[in-house]
């Protein structure tokens, strides 16, 4: 019986969809307008001499300034990390919860110290790189239409067992961290200058064509999990957008199951596409920047093709001169001891230029940044001991190898205390009685504060009460039990999803086979009929 369609209802449904679409567009336009009214355009301080635009949200800027002040008070802000956008990324990662962001920041600094991340680009050489590329094709290739680096992985060609035979998990993780450090030192600054806007995130493409999930063993899974933890904890908010291409129906089913457990902000950045992905990629990336195997027009002539070329503005020699001469690759020796050099005065020190450079790299207003040198100068100039040295030997304290740019204010001040002689009462204080009270006053106030803290701590019990200790132990046991159950559930879920993928692929194979068989039967029947008809005519 033929199906009857109510054309009136069909037109009404189309009209409703159109109205909903118009309402959605109006809401998006309204939110963009309100956001633009709350944003202000400033010159990017890191690249001030090149005039790079930097649009900042007023509320975000207030949050970043508050975050920065807390880090300064806690002595957790090395100069090399004193950057507006770096602080903003950590705030976004913790949804602007200041307490959580501070803890995350402190953990990051500790991890960098223990892992040696500050010097990993010089200290670590990944000798097995060429072999690894053969079993794990990946690399940077060009930029998207907004100037971000494009990172590509061909996961369908990964051979986990062979990969682990030419490298180790620890060495691969160090190579991974080294790649991030090079991105922040070279790729992001070069892209920022090239695009004339601040860049600190990637556009990523994962090609899963031919990927066999069952070939990924425990070692490979652990490697991926550790990489994700390193990225999330220490390089947050660096993914702008991800495209997973050549995804089959089984992968889409797995993704629809898994994304329910992920942060909506993360899932909004990930686009899972089938084998008709080219137009979507070309909306974001110009064809000249996209390899031919992904629908672009680029076919790099070098050995290994596009993924070995590392194509991008960071290979422009003139542009990289600007990056290096602009002192954008600030070294970070936060954990080294301070060593100020005392040099003879031959000519006037260009302190004004030094002060300007100190402020220009921070990303914050001059009024909030220009305090380090002035503070030290005041501290030293008020010291009788230093006055005696200067008057007798004609020397000055000057920064060694852009020291102020590489050392934390804590260590600089500690050294200044040693120079001034604050650890003990200077012998010159009695000779200059008008300065004696001013000299000792801040230390008396600090001593009072310490005494109050000691009294407050001594009034508290030294041990946790027995009943509270038992409650705490019981809670920890419950948490461990829940974590164990959660791990079991995750494993079961992964196994179920894998089975679903296999069943889906089997069903597709059966459907294709059934269609092929039906077509062949139809041809046989038609041929027999024609043959019979011809014979009857004869």
From TrEMBL:
Name of one Pfam family that matches: CRAL_TRIO
Domain of life of the source: Eukaryota
Record-annotated CRAL-TRIO domain positions: 128-302
Database matches in Gene3D superfamilies: CRAL-TRIO lipid binding domain, N-terminal domain of phosphatidylinositol transfer protein sec14p
Protein's UniProt keywords contain Cell membrane: no
Keyword Protein transport in record: yes
One GO cellular component, as annotated: Golgi membrane
Keywords from the named record: Golgi apparatus, Protein transport, Transport
GO biological process: one example: protein transport
Protein family according to the UniProt entry: Belongs to the SFH family.
Descriptive protein name: CRAL-TRIO domain-containing protein
Organism of provenance: Lactuca virosa
Organism ancestry: Eukaryota, Viridiplantae, Streptophyta, Embryophyta, Tracheophyta
């Amino acid at each position: 019986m033929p199906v009857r369609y109510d054309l009136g209802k069909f037109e009404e449904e189309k009209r409703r969809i159109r109205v909903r679409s118009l309402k959605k567009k109006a809401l998006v336009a309204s939110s963009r307008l309100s956001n633009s009214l709350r944003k202000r355009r400033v010159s990017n301080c890191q690249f001030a001499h090149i005039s790079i635009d930097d649009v900042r949200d007023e509320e975000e800027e207030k949050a970043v300034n508050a975050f920065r002040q807390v880090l300064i008070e806690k002595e957790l802000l090395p100069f090399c990390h004193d950057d507006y956008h770096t602080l903003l990324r950590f705030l976004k990662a913790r949804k602007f919860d200041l307490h959580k962001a501070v803890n995350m920041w402190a953990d990051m600094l500790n991890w960098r110290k223990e892992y040696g991340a500050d010097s990993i680009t010089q200290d670590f050489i990944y000798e097995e790189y060429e072999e690894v590329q053969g079993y794990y094709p990946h690399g940077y290739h060009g930029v998207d239409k907004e100037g971000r680096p494009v990172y590509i992985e061909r996961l369908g060609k990964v051979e986990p067992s062979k990969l682990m035979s030419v490298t180790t998990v620890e060495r691969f993780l160090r190579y991974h961290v080294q790649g991030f450090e090079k991105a922040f030192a070279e790729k992001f600054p070069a892209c920022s200058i090239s695009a004339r806007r601040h860049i600190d995130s990637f556009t990523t493409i994962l090609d899963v064509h031919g990927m066999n999930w069952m070939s990924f063993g425990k070692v490979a899974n652990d490697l991926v999990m550790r990489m994700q933890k390193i990225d999330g904890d220490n390089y947050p908010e660096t993914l702008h957008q991800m495209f997973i291409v050549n995804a089959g129906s089984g992968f889409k089913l797995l993704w629809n199951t898994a994304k329910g457990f992920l942060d909506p902000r993360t899932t909004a950045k990930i686009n899972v596409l089938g084998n008709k992905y080219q137009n979507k990629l070309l909306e974001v990336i110009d064809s000249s920047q996209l390899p031919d195997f992904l629908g672009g027009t680029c076919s790099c002539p070098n050995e290994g093709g596009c993924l070995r070329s590392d194509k991008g503005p960071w290979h422009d020699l003139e542009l990289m001169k600007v990056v290096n001469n602009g002192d954008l690759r600030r070294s970070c020796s936060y954990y080294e001891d301070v060593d100020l050099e005392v040099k003879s005065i031959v000519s006037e020190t260009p302190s004004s230029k030094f002060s300007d450079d100190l402020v220009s790299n921070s990303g914050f207003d001059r009024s909030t940044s220009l305090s380090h040198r002035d503070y030290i100068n005041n501290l030293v100039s008020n010291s009788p001991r230093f006055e005696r040295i200067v008057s007798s030997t004609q020397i000055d304290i000057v920064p060694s190898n852009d020291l102020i740019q590489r050392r934390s204010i804590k260590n600089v001040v500690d050294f200044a205390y040693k120079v001034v002689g604050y650890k003990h009462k200077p012998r010159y204080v009695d000779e200059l009685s008008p300065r004696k009270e001013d000299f000792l006053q801040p230390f008396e106030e600090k001593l009072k504060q310490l005494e109050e803290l000691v009294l407050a701590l001594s009034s508290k019990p030294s041990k946790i009460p027995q009943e509270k200790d038992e409650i705490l132990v019981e809670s920890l046991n419950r948490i461990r039990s829940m974590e164990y159950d959660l791990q079991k559930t995750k494993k079961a879920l992964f196994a179920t999803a894998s089975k679903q993928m296999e069943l889906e692929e089997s069903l597709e194979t059966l459907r294709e086979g059934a269609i092929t068989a039906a077509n062949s039967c139809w041809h046989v029947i038609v041929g027999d009929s024609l043959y019979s008809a011809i014979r009857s005519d004869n």
